[in-house]
Amino acid sequence: MSYFNIVAETTKNTVITEYKSNKKRVNNYQNEADLEKEFIQMLTEQGYDYLPIHSENDLINNLRDRIERLNDYQFSSDEWKRFFNESIANPNEHIIEKTRKIQEDYVQVLKRDDGTSKNIRLIDKTHIQNNYLQVINQYENGKENGARYDNRYDVTILVNGLPLVHIELKRRGVPIREAFNQIDRYQRDSFWAGCGLYEYVQIFVISNGTNTKYYSNSTRSNAISDARSSRTRQNKTSNSFEFTSFWSDANNKIIPDLFDFTRTFFNRHTLLAVLTKYCIFTSENLLMVMRPYQITATERILNRIEIANNYKKYGTVAGGGYIWHTTGSGKTLTSFKTARLATQIPYIDKVLFVVDRKDLDYQTMKEYDRFEKGAANSNTSTAVLKRQLEDPNAKIIITTIQKLSTFCKKNPKHPVYSKHIVVIFDECHRSQFGDMHKLIVKNFKKYHLFGFTGTPTHS
Asked: CA of 278: how far to CAs of 15, 102, 352, 378, in Å?
């Protein structure tokens, strides 16, 4: 049976619209143990189950139980042994392979005792409420498991039994960089130890109570040495503490206090949405976690599309809007995730990302390709654009204003004009946008227009 039997499901924002703390700040001395105890209590109040386990055997037994419940299937002893050793704790797989397993290959195939096959989900990305959240603390992973040192981790969130979020706490007054450095040591010295289940961690959270930040498992400051294979895996970027992020509300008000962070980021719906929808495992094998303002922009665009479709407002101003961004805010990532999620809406036929110049077209294509190889189609000519618009499999198309304009002028009665499309403009304040806008309004019937701009105008 599923953990939740869904009777009704409503759309809920991942990032809270406006957060007002109702807690009096603790600014005086608070030791780490008290901070940890208060944190775990808050999580249990929010629907997490506390699990008093500290050893790998207990972790594995709980994992089996949670995977069985998620999939409504009971493994035989041999089936579980095979599935665990081949699909979960394969000794040849490490952080990259395990991250891919959570982000992309989360349905694994079990070979049953009778020779047949069965799909087993590690995480439910369709109905995220079905995923089961538990919290453990002071988990021990040391020399008996092959680690370099005896380690005891602060707090870990288990999703269906797998450790996917790890939190390292320091007492108030201690810089949170020390928590970052501690996680860095754990990655180097012990996360791979034993069955390597801690290599499944996707997101790290560091806090000293007063300041709290989060970051992906790809943000680390140096190489991770894998003691089991004597292989050193160098991270491809120079990511470091500077790449950690604060959480905020939809008004970009930072939420640094651990209590407030827990009420928002660790809200069950928010955490599961971030893990299942707002992480991107790039073609360069790096995990990126979107920032709150990127998630907010993406969800507002998708909500606008949904509402406009329900009220038949597509093809009107009410069916679109603009997104105000600043340089370096990660606009391309936001547009990519928006385009990707929009193509998953059943009634949307195509998403066009329109840039102003050919070099931007190429640059955007390169960035989209970094996020996901082959997810988008670019074009070298209007003839290629025409073929892509006619191809039902070309879901995301990157093109220039000039090529789209030429297409519209040369093909006044093309069948694509009756398709349901989303058009996202890069830099919609440019003069060419106005002319292109007129052509789209004149030709397309069911469209949603969204523009990114760094210089919004107010009427």
From this structure: 11, 13, 21, 24
**pLDDT in single tens digits along all 459 residues of the chain:** 344 444 444 457 899 988 988 766 555 667 899 999 999 999 999 999 999 999 999 999 999 999 999 999 999 999 999 999 999 999 999 999 999 999 999 999 999 999 999 999 999 999 999 999 999 999 998 788 887 888 899 999 999 999 999 999 999 889 999 999 999 999 989 999 999 999 999 999 999 999 999 999 996 543 333 333 333 333 333 348 988 999 999 999 999 999 999 999 999 999 999 999 999 999 999 999 999 999 999 999 999 999 999 999 998 888 998 888 877 788 999 999 999 999 999 999 999 999 988 888 889 999 999 999 999 999 889 999 999 999 999 999 999 999 999 999 999 999 999 999 999 998 776 666 778 888 988 999 999 999 988 765 543
Q: What is the CATH number of domain 32-289?
A: 3.90.1570.50
Fold of the CATH domain 293-453? Rossmann fold (3.40.50)
Do the bridges between strand 212-216 and strand 203-207 make them parallel or antiparallel, or are there none, so unpaired?
Answer: antiparallel
Helix (H) or strand (E) holding 439: helix 431-443
The DSSP string of 247-272 is -B-TT--B--SHHHHHHHTTSHHHHH
Among 274, 242, 273, 246, smallest CA distance to 260 is for: 246
CATH 3.40.50.300 in the chain: give the residue spans: 293-453
Could you give the residue range(s) of every CATH 3.90.1570.50 domain in the chain? 32-289
CB-CB contact of 75 with 64 (8 Å): yes
The residues with which 148 forms a beta bridge, in sequence order, are none
DSSP 361-428: HHHHHHHHHHHSTTSSB--SSHHHHHHHHH-TT--EEEEEHHHHHHHHHH-TT-GGGGSEEEEEESST
State the Cα–Cα distance between residues 323 and 451, nearest whole angstrom. Answer: 6
Backbone angles phi, psi at 193, to 5 degrees: -70, 160
Residue with tokens 């105000």: 324
- What is the SS3 assignment for 284-312? CCCEEECCHHHHHHHHHHHHHHHHHHHCC
Distance of alpha carbon 334 from the chain centroid: 11
* H helix or E strand, kind and range, residue 95: helix 95-103
Paired strand residues for 163 = 158
Q: In angstroms, rounded to a whole number, what is the distance separating the alpha carbons of residues 159 and 169?
A: 20
